[in-house]
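To: structure subgroup
Subject: Chain for Friday's discussion

All,

I'm putting the inputs and outputs inline so they're searchable in the archive.
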Amino acid sequence: MIDFSTPLETSRLTRFLILLASLGTLTACSQTGQNVRPMALAGNAFAPPAFSAFCERDAHLCDSVSGRKIVELTAFRQQELSAVNAEVNRRILQREDRETSGREDVWRLATKEGDCEDIAIAKKAALLQSGWPASALLLTVARQPHSDEGHTVLTVRTDGGDFILDNQTSRVKPWSSTPYRYFARQSQDRNGRWDRIAGKD
């Protein structure tokens, strides 16, 4: 099992991806070769309440300004996104905070179990270990379709558009092809700040 927690496991993931790419067994991101419209921003937003406490504990996972803001979406990187998304979804048991910590809202790096934001953080950690820049990996909050229930995903910014890594599906999708109503994401300009996301239309 790949746990992405050490450089050795990250190296194994890289070799694994190269093998799968050579065999043609990994599916690339949706709409490969087509430009996906990036998210439009609409000013500042409030950070989720539990975000600040999480950043005090794990500042490196809160980084949203280091490195390139837009990643070139090569075929290998598409496959890497798909592999990380599917593997973390498979490895982490989804459980709510009140079950795992006895509290209503705690952001943390999931290792064996966690809720949507914990799983999104685990994906960011895995991609950081693989050399992806922090500035292109943005924790993002949204609302579920037809309800006000919150949901957290990881937005990956690329030259082919903004893609979503989601614990609800193993498919990596363009943000505009997901069912969510997006509210805010981490700012690429300043750590700790969040930007409001305009509608999909």
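Points worth raising on Friday:
DSSP finds six helices and nine strands in the chain.
The chain has one domain: 7-26+42-197.

D.
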